[in-house]
Design a protein that fits this description.
The chain is an all-alpha fold. 75% of the residues lie in helices and 0% in strands.
């Protein structure tokens, strides 16, 4: 094989490899798809949560909580609402652990305290629930109870 033929064969092989490596969505498209899918799952979770279907809401919040899929405020919202769903299911340890994880630096700390208040009420810890609710109201007077 001549040098020119060998060079053309290598060039063709490189073009084929480059084309194969480029198959699929670009990383930016994959990230945009992830964010769209997580936001759609969050919207569905909010709908079924409002309807009182906490088991389905919990599943949708799980779908929404993919790493990098939601901005920080929406991530905390989803974790908090999923914790409330867990409270309805009696999964208090998981619920409190999730709230403890997102509380540091959370912008919507009022909602976290409101969720804590709800979970404590469900456990019959009324005094602690009132204290948590008081914390929520100090942060945001218009915060709503779960």
């Amino acid at each position: 094989m001549s040098n020119t033929a060998a060079w053309l064969a290598m060039l063709l092989a490189l073009v084929v490899l480059a084309a194969a490596a480029g198959c699929g969505a670009a990383p930016g498209e994959e990230y945009a798809d992830l964010r769209r899918n997580c936001k759609a799952a969050l919207d569905e979770a909010e709908t079924v949560f409002a309807q009182g279907n906490f088991e389905a809401a919990c599943q949708k919040y799980d779908e929404a909580l993919q790493p990098g899929g939601l901005n920080p405020d929406l991530y905390v919202l989803a974790v908090t609402k999923r914790a409330v769903c867990w409270g309805y299911q009696g999964k208090f340890d998981e619920a409190f652990a999730a709230l403890d994880e997102v509380a540091p630096g959370a912008a919507n700390l009022d909602m976290i305290y409101a969720a804590r208040s709800f979970l404590l009420r469900k456990q019959g810890k009324i005094a602690e629930a009132k204290a948590a609710w008081g914390q929520a109201k100090r942060i945001n007077r218009s915060v709503e109870q779960f």
